């Protein structure tokens, strides 16, 4: 499976492509994404649906690997599909907030038909928020969403999305704790470091762009990180400003997020993802536990899809090759 992944030379070809259509044709004809792109019309390409269909490969690969896992390992691995499920629900909820036709959003959702308990086919046909919630009555998502009486762009939409995220990460942490802690030490550390990084990005942006209160920052931060303990989290949230927050992280493993003053906001997400890319690459190569290697493989596939998506975006903005490479997670010379 690893041997089929996009090579550095493939990246070079995609970067050199003249436009969106050329990127599409290369992926369809020369990569393992081809079978998921065949139904798209090359003469009438919609960038969003094109990008979403790349994730169909992730569903297939995850389902394939689940056959080799059992018990708590299998339950944890399934979280990779739960993440896609949550993202698909977010797409539909945004559609409701915009009073849109949910059927038209079918092409923008990706989930495992084999393992989901969410009745997506029926959700695509609903007309309002109450009907949407009722269809989720037999799932955990109903408990998350029932308290919201309405969703709109002006009111509860952001809180609904944050609640879905909280549900996902609480469930992920719960299943992480049930794993064999010794056998999966490196995998657990990788997940905890992701919690750290997500918290740092959340707190930084919450302070700089949204002027969020201490209570709001704490409420939607993730517990159970590797370096960012509850005490350190509290100190970061209590920092008077972004500069004070950065000073607290000068000697941490995460100082790299803030080292480049002029490009912090532009490349923060890419730096976070690149850190995790090398973390999971090492786990895939050195991990002794089969679960760790399987999880690392899917995350590496995630980063590959993210890079292809960045290349697609570069065509829209007519960026040259060198500029495009700056936004990629994987280094391409």
TrEMBL record:
Keyword check for Zinc: no
InterPro entries, A to Z: ATPase_csu/dsu_sf, ATPase_V0-cplx_csu/dsu, V-ATPase_V0D/AC39_subunit, V-type_ATPase_csu/dsu_dom_3
Keywords from the named record: Ion transport, Transport
Transmembrane segments: none
Entries under SUPFAM superfamilies matching the protein: V-type ATP synthase subunit C (SSF103486)
PANTHER family recorded: V-TYPE ATP SYNTHASE SUBUNIT C
Protein name: ATPase
Taxonomic source organism: Acetobacterium fimetarium
